[in-house]
Write a structure and sequence with these properties.
about 375 residues, alpha/beta, Rossmann fold, 3 domains, seven-stranded mixed β-sheet, six-stranded mixed β-sheet, 11 helices, binds riboflavin
Length: about 375
């Protein structure tokens, strides 16, 4: 009995020991993996890196900021996933660069320096500049830029949306609303826009597009323009919205990524309206988001990543995408839009949208 007991104790001890060693080891592995990826804030891709096989293709999806809360980045990731899932022998990994823009160049350099990725895909107008010296240092590396413009580099290709059109359509609706008798509209002819930071595509396409769209309704409409200073501070964005509303603004455009939720809350509280860029956003704040544009970024990324996997990209090219091409839209068939905006206004808005879609009204992309 005594022997049996000590055997049982020994066996139990061995089981516990092996359990301890096993979990201890795997814990260490986890730590190593996390340690490796944390500095780049990497998010695991949908499959492991494919290292063998002649047809293997590895994609690095570089998010310059944080994915969640920024529709244009969410679509960058989802479009890539769609293409990679469809193509055997291909894999992807998502790297979030976070909000400190001073570190972006260094972080991308370390991704490129691994030599693992056939193509880097990233999105926003500043990224070609952030990557230019990296491209010279690593001339084998290919880059796809969406929502950006670059020409003349044989290892890069870029796709720029006509943001003048998206912004003009939203500005036109904002103008119609501020002049209307909708419950949240006042007698002041004032609209506003809250932007996260200034950059050429914003200053040359989006803000003038929005303002000119509104002024096409009534040249006396004024634009209250505010710069937040980052892409995440919802509380500060809310404060800006409050002060704009206090000064007579009744429609606010938001180009401030994740910080926009602060504006949703304040406009809901005060019964005012929002214009939203980049994706059908009505459901994010029904009755408050009165107009939404959209970029077909998921579709574009899906198409270009599929082309890259299949060796069909023409490197060194730059493409401009317009409403008439189907990559820029105003969303007019959403029930929240129909329920929020009276028919009389929607009819006028549709006339303008149709003119742009059919190429009757041409709004050119300026030199950036
Ligand atoms: N848009 C976002 O929605 N979220 C972001 O975090 C974000 N960061 C940006 C950083 C830089 C340096 C630049 C130039 C643009 C950024 N954008 C961001 C804006 C985005 O590219 C696009 O212009 C707007 O979303 C309007 O379509």
């Amino acid at each position: 009995m005594k022997i049996f007991n000590s055997r049982v104790v020994l066996t139990l001890f061995m089981i516990m020991l092996s359990f301890f060693i096993f979990t201890g080891c795997s814990g260490k592995e986890d730590e190593l993996t996390r340690g490796e990826t944390e500095s780049l804030n990497a998010v695991d891709g949908i499959s492991k890196i494919v290292k063998d096989g002649p047809k293997s293709f590895n994609l690095a999806v570089v998010v310059p900021g944080v994915t969640a809360g920024s529709p244009i980045y969410e679509q960058l990731v989802s479009g890539s996933e769609l293409a990679i899932k469809e193509n055997a022998h291909s894999s992807m990994k998502v790297f979030e660069l976070d909000y400190n823009q001073a570190q972006w160049n260094e972080k991308i350099t370390s991704i490129v320096a691994t030599g693992v990725y056939d193509v880097i895909i990233t999105s926003n107008p500043s990224m070609p500049y952030v990557c230019m010296d990296i491209s010279l240092q690593f001339p084998e590396q290919k880059f796809i830029f969406v929502d950006a413009f670059v020409s003349g580099n044989p290892n890069m290709t870029s796709y720029l949306y006509n943001q003048v059109e998206q912004s003009y359509m939203l500005g036109h609706l904002a103008g119609l609303i501020t002049k209307s008798d909708m419950t949240g509209a006042n007698s002041d002819k004032k609209i506003g826009i809250i932007v996260a930071q200034e950059y050429p595509a914003l200053n040359k396409m989006m803000v003038p597009g929005f303002e000119n769209g509104a002024k096409s309704v009534d040249p006396d409409i004024e634009l209250d323009y505010r710069v937040l200073g980052n892409w995440y501070d919802a509380a500060k964005a809310g404060e800006l919205a409050r002060s704009m509303i206090d000064s007579g603004v009744d429609v606010i455009g938001v180009i401030c990524g994740g910080a926009a939720t602060g504006v949703f809350d304040v406009c809901r509280e005060r019964g005012k309206y929002i214009m939203f860029w980049d994706e059908n956003g009505y459901a994010k704040a029904p009755g408050v988001i009165a107009g939404s544009g959209a970029l077909m970024q998921e579709m574009l990324v899906y198409e270009k990543v599929s082309d890259a996997v299949n060796g069909k990209i023409e490197w060194g090219t730059s493409t401009k995408l317009h409403t008439k091409d189907g990559y820029v839209k105003f969303i007019s068939d959403d029930p929240d839009y129909i329920n929020t905006v009276p028919e009389e206004i929607r009819v006028k808005q549709q006339v303008l949208v149709d003119k742009i879609t059919q190429g009757e009204l041409i709004l050119e992309i300026p030199e950036l």
